[in-house]
Amino acid sequence: MTPQASHSNPFAQVAETDADPLGRIGVRMPFAAGEEIYAQDEEADMVYRVVSGAVRTTRLLSDGRRQIGDFYYPGDLFGLESGTEHRFSAEALGDAVVMVIKRSALSHYGDDGLRMERLIWSATARELQRTQEHLMLLGCKSACEKVAAFLLDIADRAKGELAVLAMGRQDMADYLGMTIETVCRMLRQLQDDGLVEFKGSRRFQLKQRAALSRLVVV
Amino acid sequence: MTPQASHSNPFAQVAETDADPLGRIGVRMPFAAGEEIYAQDEEADMVYRVVSGAVRTTRLLSDGRRQIGDFYYPGDLFGLESGTEHRFSAEALGDAVVMVIKRSALSHYGDDGLRMERLIWSATARELQRTQEHLMLLGCKSACEKVAAFLLDIADRAKGELAVLAMGRQDMADYLGMTIETVCRMLRQLQDDGLVEFKGSRRFQLKQRAALSRLVVV
DNA sequence: CGTTTCTTTGAATCCGGTCAAGGTCCGTGG
DNA sequence: CCACGGACCTTGACCGGATTCAAAGAAACG
To answer: Mean pLDDT across the stretch A143-172?
Structure first.
């Protein structure tokens, strides 16, 4: 496992002193499993970057229904989903380390600050794209297609190796807009059809990538 | 009906020579009902602003399923949903007039160009927020709640007056991630419960705003 | 007006949700 | 090392909300 920034493995670490200005600007903060990184409706002047572990953004409706916005892995920027205040909260999925940058302080960092600003904007644009993809998933896809798409997305980060889910079934369900039971049932179905194989509840391998991605209409 | 930029009325016009730089930069283009403004997967160097009429952004899956990203009304910027190429296409809902700005040409416009750049970024941030709101709707809400939320959103633009739907039932359905039949049934239910009143299929008035917004959990 | 397109309604069906039990994994302490 | 407890995961049976299929009505258009 290299110390370089890598989207491929949820457990990889990001180098903190490479060319990337975010490696030097900001404060390193560790979070325990499940701990809140920022709250829904909190003022949003910070930007965050996953160093190790994984992070989810979630939003709760007043009656307890929950939607997960996205999952973030080492190297990913998060917390930019807003103009003034966060619509989602962010929590560490397991133990995680996060770099925190005060956005309004970026001007003090000269060139690095500028590069950081640019990084933030491009990350915001990517965020928008991912959210739109998520929209398609929630609006158009069946339970089976949702789960297939989710597994493909995870597996693609893990480049062929055994992929590891950083989140539990409830988080998957809340991300996909369905119940935990249906997630289980779809996982079973995909396994029975021989498209994926689970070793325990969090490790899996694609068995028939082509067939799986045929399920995921684009 | 004032000639000022106004989110409140889908048929309002935006002044083209006010303080807003977009009034002067860019080219005015009329589109016929249903006409495509830009295509899915098209290169995205343009920014657009609704002058009159209304616009929808849509994305088609290869098997014909359709998701509507959002609806845009006079004064709204659209077409910024991307880094490099459009994930959604845009079409005029009825006859519409749109200002088109070449993004890469903004640097030639001095101050106005800069102000425009800033406008674009803040519109992108707002776009992200709206998309996240849409995500909650698709992921968490029942058919009835979806329709109620949709009507409230429209009615709020129309400040108390008789609200006018710029889109047909199919567009509503594709925006809300449900079928046209279910949309009709929910509309009937809301009417039977006395929460809204339709005059024809496109004009309606809120009858019990409080009760309706109680349906829309936040 | 006649024709086409859009909207509404009804009946039957099905996918996913709900409710209820077991099962599995893991950490803790005896 | 094993027994216990709790959190998480899985499965089954049933239910119900939303879709599908079909057809009638209403509105828009030439």
So the answer is: 95
